[in-house]
């Protein structure tokens, strides 16, 4: 996974330098890496990792929504500048995060620098990532409203209707409470793994 | 004797003088007097763990004996609300919202949809309204006159969680069943579903009645339920309830109703599992305690 996100980042930077469109360059590794994150929800649900299943699900599903439900579905939005900042924020967050997991799985001694990185990069990157996600979704709304992909209407034999446009609006509205909630969650994690151990060290001396 | 209390993070919360051979129930009012915010229903006490790293032992109940120099850990359960209030309010949504969709389709679907609802569709919608209303009216009446709760209160936040669940699903199901473009199922399916629904509702009531009769008024006594479907499963009230929603879905045939049934069934599966384990633990057949029937399943006779 670390490798997958590194490829995303490298291709993103290369495309930026040669001022080519970003999305075609990152499309495949991005789709693979982000879809693989479904496993994280499975791990959290099965209790294999200590992370809460609810927050993991929230995080992964919103990203999947962007990758498959917006970027893949709405070609018109792929060139938006917020796509670049979004993919940049995602890959910069995921590289140290998966590196941290890999090191943690291999040894018990995690370099403190890596722990710090894993629980600190979110402070600028989370607002950047979530802000870009919301902006990209917002930019896609007019196209979704016009084309109404994935939507089902009454009447039908199972009496079901689903309007993808309204679902997108609902998801967008949920970013408002979602961002501070997740940010507070990450701050608590940071306090637990970065700040508190440092305090304990100071107290012990 | 003297008992001291700490918060779970180790902050001292006072020492309390109690008569010899006192139980937790005599500490609770004293603790409330010292900390007026924490009335007894809001308090939970744990014995302090043997070692700091050990997992926290299970909570004490009001009859747990205390001994001199005990150190107890206190946990605030948060603001509490009566179970009865929560039940009455959460079922009020389905009872009031659903008929709105049936009676005032213009408010919900607007004037634009001019579909002519066939007489048969209207008949199915009416039967569904009756079934739905019957179910929630029955629940309200059971809350008032049948259920004897083992705990008086639950956390206030549950009121919001439960109400969102019931009010939300009521609107979601009602929206599709009462839709002007609703497609009703065939007659035989509707009538089979309706029969299943009402028979299972009666079964559910009978299970609730059996549970009521197990517990003498004003007590929190627990006994092994007997008779009827109780001989086969621990929670027949849930078995009946799930089948009754299956009947409703056969009658109405909506994805929304199916989702509601699955969500409910999943929750009941979890509750039934923990109730079953509680029964087995409490009635282990040792030291003169009754033995819980070993062949009894959780929710599905002979299978699960």
From TrEMBL, chain A:
Residues 1-19 form the signal peptide. The chain crosses the membrane at residues 164-183. Its main location: membrane. The keyword Lyase applies. One of its GO terms (cellular component) is endoplasmic reticulum membrane. It catalyses: a very-long-chain (3R)-3-hydroxyacyl-CoA = a very-long-chain (2E)-enoyl-CoA + H2O. Pathway: Lipid metabolism; fatty acid biosynthesis. Its EC number is 4.2.1.134. Keywords: Fatty acid biosynthesis, Fatty acid metabolism, Lipid biosynthesis, Lipid metabolism, Lyase, Membrane, Signal, Transmembrane, Transmembrane helix. It is a multi-pass membrane protein. It is found in: Membrane. One of its GO terms (biological process) is sphingolipid biosynthetic process. GO terms for molecular function: very-long-chain (3R)-3-hydroxyacyl-CoA dehydratase activity. The keyword Lipid biosynthesis applies. Belongs to the very long-chain fatty acids dehydratase HACD family. PANTHER family: VERY-LONG-CHAIN (3R)-3-HYDROXYACYL-COA DEHYDRATASE (PTHR11035:SF3). This is very-long-chain (3R)-3-hydroxyacyl-CoA dehydratase. It comes from Chondrus crispus (Carrageen Irish moss).
Automatic annotation (TrEMBL), chain B:
Residues 153-304 form the 3-oxo-5-alpha-steroid 4-dehydrogenase C-terminal domain. The keyword Zinc does not apply. The keyword Ribosomal protein does not apply. InterPro entries: 3-oxo-5_a-steroid_4-DH_C, SRD5A/TECR. One of its GO terms (molecular function) is oxidoreductase activity, acting on the CH-CH group of donors. GO terms for biological process: sphingolipid metabolic process; very long-chain fatty acid biosynthetic process; wax biosynthetic process. The chain crosses the membrane at residues 164-183, 189-207, 254-272. It holds the Pfam family Steroid_dh. Keywords: Lipid biosynthesis, Lipid metabolism, Membrane, Oxidoreductase, Transmembrane, Transmembrane helix. It is a multi-pass membrane protein. GO terms for cellular component: endoplasmic reticulum membrane. It is found in: Membrane. PANTHER family: 3-OXO-5-ALPHA-STEROID 4-DEHYDROGENASE (PTHR10556), VERY-LONG-CHAIN ENOYL-COA REDUCTASE (PTHR10556:SF28). Belongs to the steroid 5-alpha reductase family. This is Trans-2-enoyl-CoA reductase (NADPH). It comes from Chondrus crispus.
């Amino acid at each position: 996974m670390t490798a997958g996100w590194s490829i995303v980042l490298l291709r993103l930077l290369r495309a930026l330098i040669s001022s080519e469109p970003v999305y075609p360059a990152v499309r495949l590794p991005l789709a693979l890496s982000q879809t693989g994150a479904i496993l994280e929800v499975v791990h959290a649900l099965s209790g294999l990792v200590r992370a809460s299943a609810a927050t993991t699900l929230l995080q992964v599903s919103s990203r999947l929504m962007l990758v498959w439900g917006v970027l893949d579905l709405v070609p018109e939005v792929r060139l938006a500048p917020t796509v670049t900042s979004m993919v940049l924020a995602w890959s910069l967050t995921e590289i140290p995060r998966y590196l941290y997991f890999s090191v943690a799985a291999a040894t018990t001694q995690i370099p403190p620098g890596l722990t710090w990185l894993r629980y600190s990069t979110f402070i600028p990157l989370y607002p950047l990532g979530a802000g870009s996600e919301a902006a990209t979704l917002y930019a896609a709304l007019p196209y979704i409203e016009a084309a109404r992909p994935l939507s089902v209407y009454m009447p039908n034999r199972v009496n079901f209707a689903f309007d993808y446009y309204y679902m997108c609006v609902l998801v967008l509205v949920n970013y408002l409470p979602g961002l501070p909630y997740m940010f507070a969650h990450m701050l608590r994690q940071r306090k637990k793994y970065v700040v508190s151990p440092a305090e304990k060290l100071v107290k012990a001396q | 004797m003297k008992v001291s209390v700490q918060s779970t993070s180790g902050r001292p919360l006072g020492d309390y003088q109690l008569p010899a051979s006192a139980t937790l129930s005599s500490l609770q009012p004293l603790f409330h007097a010292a900390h007026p915010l924490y009335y007894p229903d809001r308090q939970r006490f744990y014995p302090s763990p043997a070692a700091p790293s050990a997992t926290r032992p299970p909570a004490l109940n009001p009859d747990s004996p205390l001994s001199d120099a005990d150190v107890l850990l206190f946990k605030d359960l948060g603001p509490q609300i009566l179970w009865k209030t929560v039940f009455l309010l959460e079922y009020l949504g389905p009872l009031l919202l659903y008929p709105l969709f049936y009676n005032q389709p213009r408010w919900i679907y607007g004037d634009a949809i001019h579909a002519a609802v066939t007489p048969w569709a209207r008949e199915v919608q009416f039967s569904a309204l009756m079934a739905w209303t019957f179910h929630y009216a029955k629940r309200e009446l059971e809350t008032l006159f049948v259920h004897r709760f083992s705990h008086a209160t639950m956390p206030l936040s549950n009121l919001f969680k439960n109400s969102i669940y019931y009010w939300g699903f009521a609107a979601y199901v009602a929206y599709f069943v009462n839709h002007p473009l609703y497609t009703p199922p065939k007659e035989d399916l509707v009538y089979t579903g309706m029969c299943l629904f009402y028979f299972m509702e009666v079964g559910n009531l009978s299970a609730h009645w059996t549970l009521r009769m197990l517990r003498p008024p004003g007590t929190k006594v627990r006994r092994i339920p007997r008779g009827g479907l109780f001989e086969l499963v621990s929670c027949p009230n849930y078995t009946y309830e799930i089948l009754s929603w299956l009947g409703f879905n056969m009658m109405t045939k909506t994805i929304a109703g199916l989702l509601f049934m699955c969500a409910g069934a999943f929750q009941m599966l979890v509750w039934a599992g923990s109730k079953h384990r509680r029964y087995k633990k409490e009635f282990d057949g040792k030291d003169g305690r009754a033995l819980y029937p070993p062949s009894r399943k959780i929710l599905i006779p002979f299978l699960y």
